[in-house]
Write a structure and sequence with these properties.
The chain has helices at about 95-110, 145-150, 185-200, 235-250, 305-320, 335-340, 355-365, 380, 385-390, 410-415, 430-440, and strands spanning about 10-15, 20, 25-30, 35-40, 45-55, 55-65, 120-125, 135-140, 160-165, 170-175, 215-220, 225-230, 255-260, 275-280, 285, 290-295, 325-330, 345-350, 370-375, 395-400, 420-425, 445-450, 460-470. It has eleven helices and 23 strands. By secondary structure, the protein is an alpha/beta fold. The termini are far apart. Helix 1 (about 95-110) runs parallel beside helix 11 (about 430-440). Strands 7-22-23-21-20-17-18-19 form an eight-stranded mixed β-sheet, with helices on both faces.
Length: about 475
Amino acid sequence: MRRKKKQTTTILENVEITAIAAEGKGLARVENYVVFVDKAIPGDNVHAKVQRKKKDYAMAEIETLVHPSAHRIDSFCVHFGTCGGCKWQHVDYSFQLEMKQNLVEDAFRRIGKTTITNQLPILGCEQTIYYRNKLEFTFSNRAWLTREQIDSGETFDKNALGFHISGNFSSILPIDTCYLQDEKVNDIRNSIFEFTTQQAFSFYNLKFHDGLLRNLIFRNTTLNEWMVTICFAQADMEKIELLMDFVKNKFPFLTSLNYIINTKKNDTIYDQEVITYFGKNHIIEQLGTIQYKISPKSFFQTNSHQAKRLYDLVKIFGNFSKKDIVYDLYCGTGSIALYIANDCKKVIGIEQIPDAITDAIFNAELNNINNATFHVGTCEDILKEEFIATHEMPTIVVLDPPRAGLHEKVIQVLLQAAPPKIVYVSCNPSTQARDVLLFSEKYEITKGQAVDMFPHTFHIENIVVLELKN
């Protein structure tokens, strides 16, 4: 029997963090390789414990914070450091914005092989807590305990209602107070946990896939409409109705109360039936003068206040006119398409999720918009020469793809069609920069601006305007 080699721990002493890298990790250079240090920020001096070492880089965590960065502050959430959500709570907000601007510019230098000469200052978020309009929590019969809790010798509840732990999917961190969505979420969530515990409801086991209670999803709007959707893993109608009645009676302000019975092994609900137990099957959001129907399966920007500012920038950068034929690719529920429709001759939206297109059509009717049409399917399958010939050649294309960026076929079709202007909105500057490089044979960047939608995280939205070269 072969003996395992004894693992030795490598500590890198007095490591100076000089920049921020992908995933929000601190970056340092030690001898001839790069070190990425979790939770470190520029200006920190740390002793770093190496977790994984490759030929030219290492992944590490802070063993000792020797000298903190001047931009470090105290976190405001007791779950910070254990919860995987707000990774930059320990960084003052002005420096968060600076780091995000640097991430965008670095992505375009390294990956896009270009510099955005007219990159405007990042648009910060006026509200840095309680800014989200959607959160999802998970029920689990395996509560994550911190080292301090384990060492205390106290007895803790085995059940949890909270967030996944990074790197440990089967355990859930119990959440008492979360600062991401309106405080009503904490009240409702904690009340549901208390009630279901008293009633001895079974919580889901993420490893063996059994138990009744599975997920809890909150959505709210600036019009103060509220939606709660509870996902169950078993069709125990007696218990389901008991819980739904409890929520309905205790929180009568809810606009929409729904449940889903999901017996699959994954948590996705897009292929599941949603049953409305109380109220409407949707809630209404309003950005500017445009109203949007949001159903349990809808995709919508999770920061409504900042979404309006983002869409205002799309309007400004697009400089749309009544002569413009605009294609909105990856249009979702038509949020951007409808926001700009009154400024254009015609808007054509493409989205692969059927329910999103259903909402987009509803939203067009809701707002009496008659110059917007929506089509179901992937952009790479629909956006072809025949489609463009049928719906007219676009003068402006708006892109807002998922994190993976654009399909290469979409880029090739757009290069062939050569619309005069492309407004590219992205939640991932790295894939955006990669795509812009592919466009560079015909297009140049004339303007760009980053928008912070997610304070205390390393995530960032970025808009660039591409125009045909002379």
